[in-house]
Amino acid sequence: MSRVAEKFEDYRDRYQNIKLERDDHGILTMTFHTAGGSLVWSALAHEELGYCFTDVSADRENKVVVMTGTGLNYCSDIDAGSFTLSTAGDWDQIIFEGRRMLLNLLDIEVPVISAINGPARIHPEIPILADMVLASETAVFQDAPHFISGIVPGDGAHIVWPHVLGPNRGRYFLISGQELTARQAMEYGAVNEVLAPDQLMDRAYALARKIAPLPALTRRYTRLAVTQRIKRLMQEGLGYGLALEALAAVDHLPTEGRMKDVK
Q1: Residues in CB range of 229: below 8 A, 6 or more apart
Q2: Is 179 a catalytic residue?
C-alpha cells in the first residue's frame, strides 16, 4: 500500500519551535523561535527539527524553502537543563535525533535559502547547510556549546565547518571558539551575501520567487546534485562523531557554557 504524503495543513501547526508559512508561489518559510522570540535551543527544539524537515521534504507542494529566525538572534542561547546526557540511553536518543536533524534537512529535495537574522552560536551549521546563505550585518557565527564548553563537536559541526571553510580554517574555528562576523564568514566562503537587517527577508524572497517558477524536476534534481557530496560526508561521519561526543560527555560533563547575546 502506498503512503499518501501529508498536506501542509496537516503539519503546519505541529511544532512549538517552528512557525511554518507557505505562500501562493509554493515558497515555504520556516521561522525558528521560542514562544515568539529568538530560538533558545532545547531538547524540544532538538527533537522537533528532524521531524519537521521530514514533513517539509515529503510535501511536494513546497517549491522553495526559506529558513530564518526571530528577533535579534538566530539562535544564541541554550536551555542546557532541558537535556539529559548522563547515560548511554540518554545519548542513544540524542544520537537518533541528531542524525535525523541534519540528514533530513539534506533530504529536502528543493532549494533551501537561509536568512540568518542575527548571532548564530548554537547549531550554526544548520543555516550554513542551505544552498544560498544570506546573513544580516548583525550575524555572528560561533560553535559555542561544544569544544570551548567541554563537549566534542561531533554532531555534524565537525563535518560542515571544515567542508565550507576548508580543513585548516574549519578545525581552527571549532577548537578555538572563534567568532566570525557576517563579513568574515562571507570572506571565508560560508555566507553568500551580507545585508542590512531590514533588507534580509526581501532579498531571500526575491531569490525564492526566481526559483519557484522553474520546472519541478529542475528544482528537485539540482538540489539532489549539489547536496550529494555533503550527504555522503554526513553518512560517513555523523554517527561516528556523535558517538565520540557521547563518550566524552558521559566521562566529563561541563558545568559552565559560553552562550551569550540578547534573547
Answers
A1: none
A2: no
